[in-house]
Amino acid sequence: MNNKIIKAGLIQQSNTADIEANKKKLANNICDCAQKGAQLVVLQELHNSLYFCQTENTELFNLAETIPGDSTHFYSNIARENNVVLVTSLFEKRAPGLYHNTAVVFDSDGSIAGKYRKMHIPDDPAYYEKFYFTPGDLGFNPIETSIGKLGILVCWDQWYPEAARLMALKGAEILIYPTAIGWESSDTLEEQQRQLNAWIISQRGHAVANGLPVISVNRVGHEPDPSKQTNGIQFWGNSFAAGPQGEILISGPNDEEINLIIDIDMKRSENVRRWWPFLRDRRIDEYQNISKRFID
């Protein structure tokens, strides 16, 4: 990946309850990115459907599918036809009663390059993911593709520096976060801005600390709460790419669908790590307690 400029496409999309329509729109957007030269295309978290975790409903497990399965066949064909490395996010049915939030990466020939199962699972009002998803068990392992090693993490993983660090230590050349995050209507404008800034700063911090570019792709638009206990989620978009010093390379709006295209200079990571050799100066002899829940 060094000495290469990678052209990446970030698809920020709103969704409806019509899964086939969502997939068709994604297919068109992937084609649009490819026509604009994208070699890597990243989709948002759980992009086939509405964000169904606003309620706890056993019927919604019917949305899950096996890997490989119908969706992997669908996106495999799209990746091959458009000659792109494609990062997808699916609701995986591993076995009856056992489900994961799983990112699947397709290489440009349509083959499955690898998958990552979301490790950190939230359980907050309107984000009842622990009801649906078993924590991942595939570890933090970059996925090897024809354009390099992709460190795929998913949404809630983006708050954890340990996840980004382990991907970096295993040779990831870029960190990628499919995401579904937004505001609840009761949040004040000030609180909304604090949340959004924290989300952006946290991921830019992972870029800086590891000397790696970061891509984060979030959904956009309002999705109502089926239970009507809340006013639903306004997903805040703001998909972005950052360079290895945390510099914003491109970012999207908070209220519109958009396909973002950006050139990412992968050689810059090595230069930045030479200037700021954080990996060299880590005190690995003093970090034993990092694996504890809390140090009393």
TrEMBL record:
One of its GO terms (molecular function) is N-carbamoylputrescine amidase activity. The keyword Hydrolase applies. Residues 6-266 form the CN hydrolase domain. Keywords: Hydrolase. CDD domains: CPA. SUPFAM superfamilies: Carbon-nitrogen hydrolase. PROSITE patterns: CN_HYDROLASE (PS50263). Pfam families: CN_hydrolase. GO terms for biological process: putrescine biosynthetic process from arginine. The keyword Repeat does not apply. This is Beta-ureidopropionase. It comes from Coprobacter secundus subsp. similis. The lineage of its organism: Bacteria, Pseudomonadati, Bacteroidota, Bacteroidia, Bacteroidales.
